[in-house]
Amino acid sequence: MPKKIDHQKRKEKILHTALAVFAREGYKDTNLSVIAQECGVSRPTIYQYFKDKEDIYHYAVKLVTGRMFTKYVQYAWNTEDPILLRIQNICSDIIDTAGRHRGELISLMDVMIQLKKEGLDFSDIILRRTAKLHILFKRLLRLGINKKQIVECDISKVTQHLVILLESFSFQLSFLDSFDVEGSKQLIANYLESIRRVETHRFIIH
């Protein structure tokens, strides 16, 4: 009886192998034959899952961001946590996830740097994949303002600040062995604290 193939598992194995080869050999000098050889499969098998190298890179970004976003949406709208705590927990999980998968993150960064040197730019797919996170943060911030948990603020600007911080932490995590994970999460917490609405009470003297 033929062995049943777990296609999703095989696709992800090809992905991780490809990222490692890209980082070692360079994106431009890597072909699908090399990836197939290191995966222990034939080149036609690779074509069952990916049409070319660019497709592999796009899938890597889509896989990571897609899974994370699904988890964050489920959490954001199915909890009674205060709004700022929801945002803080999402940011903390992004940082923790990047830390747990540091090897894959480094490979992705290596590929991005090589592509930049070769005159190619995949920043558009990064922007598309983070667009959903922008929308989620904006919706949560708006809800927080409506619930009087957050001060009136420029929602777009606050969202941009949060995403820039997360992107900066991701790059630092890739290149700095001394990156302070807990310190970065505390920085996010401090930033969010600055937009917390504090109730003031009037005291009437009779």
Description of the molecule:
It is a single chain. The chain is an all-alpha fold. The model is unreliable at 201-206 (pLDDT under 50). It has a domain at 56-193: Tetracycline Repressor, domain 2 (Orthogonal Bundle). The protein has helices at residues 7-25, 32-39, 43-47, 53-76, 83-100, 102-117, 123-146, 155-175, 181-193. The longest helix is centred in the first third of the chain and has 24 residues, at 53-76. The chain contains nine helices and no strands. Helix 1 (7-25) packs across helix 6.
Labels describing this entry:
elongated; mainly alpha; disordered C terminus
Q: CATH superfamily of the domain at 56-193, called what?
A: Tetracycline Repressor, domain 2
Strand runs, count: 0
The radius of gyration computed from the alpha-carbon positions, rounded to a whole number of angstroms, is 21 Å
Mean pLDDT: 85
Strand and helix order: HHHHHHHHH
Shape: elongated
Find the structural class using helix and strand composition. mainly alpha
Head-to-tail CA distance between termini: 90 Å
Task: Tell me the CATH architecture of the domain at 56-193.
Answer: Orthogonal Bundle
Our count of helices gives 9
